[in-house]
Write a structure and sequence with these properties.
202 residues, alpha+beta, 5-stranded antiparallel sheet, 10 strands, globular
Amino acid sequence: MFVQVIQGQVADAERAHAAVEQWARDLAPGATGWLGSTGGVTEDGRFIALARFESEEAARRNSDRPEQDRWWAETARLFTTEPTFKDSSDVIVDVAGDPDTAGFVQVMQGQGTDADRARELMSQDSAAWADFRPDIIGSIVVAHDGGAYTMAIYFTSEEAAREGEGKEPPAELKAQMEEMDTLSVGVPEFFDLKQPWLHSPR
């Protein structure tokens, strides 16, 4: 899988949402290899989207379409800061349900010191994690250069997510969480998407 992360500041979340819906309606049917997208705008106007493709080649083919160019030329005007793009084929997907049914998505961006160990920890005790946090439908982790990452977590609802955050984990899961914390550099940035925009091929 190949993921492109697009982000920037927007002044009008509704217009940004309308642009994304237009893409899903008019351009997605011709986007060969497109697997879906997750996006939204935080309450303070930060836009972030994760577009998933089968491969980098498929993403490039989409970018090269004239209709894609026209759509982006219009959409780029909605940003009040220069939008940034981060591409990666280093992607981990963990799905316990249908992410497209999520009522709340939290995207986290940060940096770690040991990506391999982080992958090991995330792959451990998946059944125990599912029992402990049934509010989590799935997640996608995108690795970037220098140990940076973007992680999207899909929840049934924000209420369930907040309730889950307050639960005391079993000892073995708590130990994993504590070790993950030791691998983190600095403080991660969180994007709470209370009205996530979720699309996938029909």
